[in-house]
Design goal:
Bound molecules: zinc ion
Oligomer: single chain
Strand content: 15-25%
Distance between the termini: 66 Å
Largest sheet: 4 strands, antiparallel
Structural class: alpha+beta
Number of strands: 4
Order of helices and strands: HEEEEH
Radius of gyration: 18 Å
Protein backbone atom coordinates (compact mmCIF):
# COMPACT_ATOMS: atom_id res chain seq x y z
CA UNK A 1 0.00 0.00 0.00
CA UNK A 2 1.32 3.42 -0.97
CA UNK A 3 1.63 5.86 1.90
CA UNK A 4 -0.06 9.21 1.35
CA UNK A 5 2.38 12.13 1.34
CA UNK A 6 0.40 14.08 3.93
CA UNK A 7 1.37 11.70 6.75
CA UNK A 8 4.82 13.15 7.53
CA UNK A 9 3.44 16.70 7.60
CA UNK A 10 0.64 15.57 9.88
CA UNK A 11 3.18 13.94 12.16
CA UNK A 12 5.13 17.22 12.34
CA UNK A 13 1.99 19.20 13.07
CA UNK A 14 1.25 16.89 15.97
CA UNK A 15 4.72 16.29 17.41
CA UNK A 16 6.79 19.09 15.91
CA UNK A 17 9.62 18.87 13.41
CA UNK A 18 12.58 16.62 14.04
CA UNK A 19 15.47 18.57 12.55
CA UNK A 20 18.87 17.12 11.82
CA UNK A 21 21.95 19.12 10.88
CA UNK A 22 22.59 18.43 7.21
CA UNK A 23 25.35 20.96 6.66
CA UNK A 24 27.72 23.00 8.76
CA UNK A 25 28.23 26.24 6.89
CA UNK A 26 30.26 28.12 9.52
CA UNK A 27 30.71 27.77 13.29
CA UNK A 28 27.42 29.59 13.79
CA UNK A 29 25.42 28.84 10.66
CA UNK A 30 24.03 25.39 9.99
CA UNK A 31 21.47 23.91 7.63
CA UNK A 32 18.81 21.56 8.98
CA UNK A 33 16.35 19.14 7.40
CA UNK A 34 13.32 17.67 9.13
CA UNK A 35 13.57 13.87 9.21
CA UNK A 36 9.86 13.50 8.52
CA UNK A 37 8.65 16.18 6.10
CA UNK A 38 12.04 17.28 4.65
CA UNK A 39 11.47 20.93 5.52
CA UNK A 40 14.79 22.76 5.32
CA UNK A 41 15.89 25.45 7.75
CA UNK A 42 18.99 27.54 8.21
CA UNK A 43 20.42 29.92 10.78
CA UNK A 44 19.96 33.54 9.69
CA UNK A 45 22.08 36.57 10.58
CA UNK A 46 20.09 37.08 13.81
CA UNK A 47 20.99 33.58 14.95
CA UNK A 48 17.43 32.30 14.72
CA UNK A 49 16.10 29.63 12.41
CA UNK A 50 14.43 30.48 9.13
CA UNK A 51 13.22 28.60 6.06
CA UNK A 52 16.07 27.66 3.71
CA UNK A 53 15.03 29.56 0.61
CA UNK A 54 17.13 29.68 -2.61
CA UNK A 55 18.29 33.14 -1.44
CA UNK A 56 19.59 31.70 1.85
CA UNK A 57 21.22 28.79 -0.01
CA UNK A 58 23.11 31.37 -2.04
CA UNK A 59 24.15 33.31 1.08
CA UNK A 60 25.24 30.10 2.80
CA UNK A 61 27.32 29.03 -0.20
CA UNK A 62 29.19 32.34 -0.01
CA UNK A 63 29.57 32.10 3.77
CA UNK A 64 30.89 28.56 3.42
CA UNK A 65 33.47 29.64 0.86
CA UNK A 66 34.69 32.48 3.11
CA UNK A 67 34.70 30.19 6.14
CA UNK A 68 36.66 27.47 4.34
CA UNK A 69 39.20 29.97 3.02
CA UNK A 70 39.65 31.35 6.54
CA UNK A 71 40.05 27.96 8.25
CA UNK A 72 42.37 26.80 5.47
CA UNK A 73 44.57 29.84 5.99
CA UNK A 74 44.55 29.22 9.74
CA UNK A 75 45.57 25.59 9.19
CA UNK A 76 48.44 26.63 6.93
CA UNK A 77 49.56 29.20 9.49
CA UNK A 78 49.55 26.61 12.29
CA UNK A 79 51.40 24.16 10.09
CA UNK A 80 54.17 26.58 9.19
CA UNK A 81 54.53 27.82 12.78
CA UNK A 82 54.89 24.25 14.06
CA UNK A 83 57.64 23.63 11.52
CA UNK A 84 59.52 26.76 12.55
ZN1 LIG B 1 8.79 18.21 9.77
Amino acid sequence: MKKPNSIPKMYCNLFGHDYQVTKRVTYHVKEYTCKHCKTELTTNSNGSLTELTPKFKEINAILERIHNARTQRLKNKNLSSSIN
